[in-house]
């Protein structure tokens, strides 16, 4: 649990703890720490046709334009093909958040950003401040860049590249051990222990035959045991939680084949996410599993499992667990009902959102607070606890999270800014609405330009870093 009073940090610093703390009992506390990102202009594998100064494509133009009507027709036909090609690559694919023309300048800027990121991630020592600046403007798709950047921003990977392999191996081994201890049924666990014991016995006795031995089952290990110390009692206790997780995972982004459907592909991903959420619940009985955690896990798991590095993709489950824990460490108290009325609970965070809105637009604040009486808990509770994963399409979520994770003052600081910006961007509609209209509007947030929204969030005053919780 996060504890401490609110304070203004002396300087911008990384906010994620260098240790997982009490959230992950069993993980090493002593260690330091893609749909999405920049809107892609081209389909995967598509290349730009070289456009020459004469306006034609990369194919050779006719050597003799005036050589007859046939030649003229061919030239005209070719020019139409080039113009058609230009129109095709100069437009973005339609998205939920709007359609717009993309200039060559923007294309070159995106390419330069990718080059800068690749260069930064290739350094022996990663400059985290520079990485934060790059990520805040949106991470590019492809190449596993977002996966690596998020792991660094969350503190899962240390800045030194030389330590990456060692850290990954250790953390993945620890996760496998936790799964074996906490997710296997007592029967499966007994089989493994028996197999190891039998192997040890054979090694000691060689091939000497002997009388068969029965395996004794203690009262505590019996499935019908009612004792609280029984392994089966603890196992059955989490059955209801597992069923709730399964139901929620079935509803996770139903429009994406990656998560939904009956294919072995989607079932494999749901099973991995189920393991992460159930293990988190068992390790954190005070919080357990709260409906909606599946939505917070989904972006992390998607980004890691689509990493182009095959080994990283194969270990997406273990990496997602560690990063999921680190992400929740900044907002875990929002999921604890007993802390709702405390200084670190969700109601205090909602109050800070109201204060931020009042500081930036008192007219809108008064209208929501006194005229239409739409209180923040009616709409922003979901925005904050689920990190906006229910308000935008998946690609937009990736882009917003780039800014959340790269904020020097922490996820919650930038999250409050984005929530406030969401209100400001639809100010005129809110001022013209009553309670019912405004509540419906805020619970079903309209399409909006994400880059514009994030720019409004960055331009807000005052500096909301003063709201950050001390870790």
TrEMBL record:
One of its GO terms (biological process) is intracellular protein transport. GO terms for molecular function: GTPase activator activity. Residues 195-215 are annotated as: Disordered. Residues 140-408 form the Rab-GAP TBC domain. InterPro entries: Rab-GAP-TBC_dom, Rab-GAP_TBC_sf. It holds the Pfam family RabGAP-TBC. Gene3D superfamilies: putative rabgap domain of human tbc1 domain family member 14 like domains, Ypt/Rab-GAP domain of gyp1p, domain 1, Ypt/Rab-GAP domain of gyp1p, domain 3. It comes from the Eukaryota. PANTHER family: TBC1 DOMAIN FAMILY MEMBER 13-LIKE ISOFORM X1, TBC1 DOMAIN FAMILY MEMBER GTPASE-ACTIVATING PROTEIN. This is RabGAP-TBC domain-containing protein. It comes from Cephalotus follicularis.
């Amino acid at each position: 649990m996060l504890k401490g009073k609110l304070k203004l940090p002396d300087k911008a610093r990384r906010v994620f703890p260098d240790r997982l703390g009490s959230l992950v009992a069993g993980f090493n506390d002593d260690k330091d720490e893609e749909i999405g990102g920049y809107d892609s202009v081209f389909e995967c594998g598509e290349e730009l046709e070289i456009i020459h100064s004469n306006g034609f494509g990369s194919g050779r133009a006719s050597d003799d334009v005036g050589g007859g009507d046939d030649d003229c027709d061919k030239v005209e036909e070719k020019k139409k093909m080039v113009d058609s090609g230009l129109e095709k690559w100069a437009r973005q694919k339609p998205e939920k958040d709007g359609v717009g023309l993309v200039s060559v300048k923007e294309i070159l800027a995106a390419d330069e950003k990718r080059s800068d990121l690749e260069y930064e991630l290739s350094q022996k020592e990663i400059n985290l401040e520079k990485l934060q600046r790059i990520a805040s403007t949106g991470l590019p798709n492809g190449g596993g860049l977002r996966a690596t950047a998020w792991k660094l921003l969350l503190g899962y990977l240390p800045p030194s590249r030389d330590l990456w392999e060692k850290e990954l191996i250790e953390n993945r081994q620890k996760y496998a051990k936790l799964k074996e201890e906490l997710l296997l049924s007592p029967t499966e666990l007994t089989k493994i222990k028996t197999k190891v014991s039998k192997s040890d016995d054979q090694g000691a006795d060689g091939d000497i035959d002997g009388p068969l031995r029965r395996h004794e089952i203690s009262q505590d290990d019996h499935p019908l045991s009612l004792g609280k110390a029984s392994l089966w009692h603890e196992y059955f206790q989490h059955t209801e939680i597992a069923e709730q997780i399964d139901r929620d995972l079935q509803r996770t982004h139903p429009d994406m084949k990656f998560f939904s459907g009956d294919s072995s592909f989607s079932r494999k991903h749901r099973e991995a996410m189920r393991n992460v959420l159930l293990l988190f619940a068992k390790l954190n009985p005070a919080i357990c599993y709260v409906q909606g955690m599946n939505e917070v896990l989904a972006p992390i798991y998607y980004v890691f499992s689509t990493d182009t590095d095959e080994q990283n993709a194969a270990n997406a489950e273990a990496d997602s667990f560690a990063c999921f824990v680190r992400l929740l460490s900044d907002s875990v108290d929002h999921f604890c009902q007993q802390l709702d009325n405390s200084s670190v609970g969700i109601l205090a965070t909602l109050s800070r959102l109201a204060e931020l809105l009042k500081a930036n637009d008192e007219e809108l604040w008064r209208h929501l607070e006194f005229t239409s009486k739409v209180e923040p808990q009616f709409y922003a509770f979901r925005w904050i606890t689920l990190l906006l994963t229910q308000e935008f399409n998946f690609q937009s979520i990736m882009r917003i999270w780039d800014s959340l994770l790269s904020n020097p003052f922490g996820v919650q600081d930038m999250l409050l800014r984005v929530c406030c910006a969401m209100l400001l961007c639809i100010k005129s509609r809110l001022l013209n609405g009553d309670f019912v209209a405004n509540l419906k509007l805020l619970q079903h947030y309209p399409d909006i330009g994400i880059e514009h929204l994030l720019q409004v969030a960055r331009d807000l005053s005052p500096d909301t870093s003063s709201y950050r919780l001390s870790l």
